[in-house]
Amino acid sequence: MTKFSLIEKYFKGQKEIGYPNYLILDKSFDLSKINAKNKQTPTVKIEKKVEVSQTVPEKVTPTTAVKIEHTFQIEQSATQEKQVDKREKLIELYERCKNCSACSLSKTRKKFVFGAGTVFTDVLAIGEAPGEREDIEGLPFVGAAGQLLTKMLAAINLQRNEIFIANVLKCRPPQNRKPNGQEIAACIPMLKRQIEIINPKAILLLGGTAANALLQNDKSVGALRGIVHYYENIPVVVSYHPSALLRDASWKKYAWEDLQKFERLLKELRNAQ
Questions:
Q1: Do residues 118 and 164 make contact, with C-beta atoms less than 8 angstroms apart?
Q2: Please, which residues bridge with residue 126 across strands?
Q3: Cβ-based burial of 126 (10 A; exposed 0-12, middle 13-18, buried ≥19)
């Protein structure tokens, strides 16, 4: 079983019962159409074969088989409802916050950059703030730094569509300046709610702004990297922001060490499940 086989099985099941597979903030996404379709979708019973483990008696009566199948279907249904609920909660958060005017950046932004990826993931990557390209497209990490991030993730066998990517700030600071305290304070509750909904196994913090905002300190990336931190009992690894790596290539060797550490951590967490 591959590491994302459970997610693949879920999407297959979702397709069978009429739920679409889409990414948050996909350009074709229409919440009203999704809700309308879901209301009209009839309930379809999903039949799956159940393999009986060695702990079950060799002689399985028809009654026992029915009980096993019934239990499996109940557990499967509960899991699907929980996953669908996560998706709906994230969409609800987006709808509530997309017109945010809590700070002055709402007056200068082109687009609100909520985040992108899948809610059905155990990995969350968090950066600083949208840049010029992100502000235009409404998606995080789509410029030169985003291309580098894609390569960094691929190096540890992670694809962008298999995780969720967000920033501390959802709006671009003018001229890509560093976010100030007021702007971070206005946006951090939204980020914390995203983390709460997605509930990842591990978080990768990219850059000092993300690390300081979430871990509530003022230490440099150099002082924070190399060890595992925790946010609400979720393991956190800190590394350099891809933009910093583009400015100073000498930091790439340290970023690679951090990525390897994150990969080992994630493997341990998944194996422990």
A1: yes
A2: 166, 205
A3: buried
Residue that wins the pLDDT comparison between 245 and 75: 245
Please give the CATH number for the structural domain made up of 105-271. 3.40.470.10
What CA–CA distance (Å, rounded) separates 83 from 42?
19
Alpha-helical segments (H) within 98-160: 105-108, 132-137, 144-154
DSSP state of 140: S
Residue 76 has pLDDT above 80, yes or no: no
What pLDDT band is residue 81 in, cutting at 50, 70 and 90?
low
Amino acid code (one letter) for 119 = V
Report the half-sphere exposure of 64 (CA within 13 A, side-chain side): 8
Q: What is the mean pLDDT of residues 45-53?
A: 41
Q: How far is Cα 273 from Cα 268, in angstroms, rounded to an integer?
A: 9
| Domain extents in the chain | 5-97, 105-271
**Element (H or E) spanning 204, and its range?**
strand 202-206
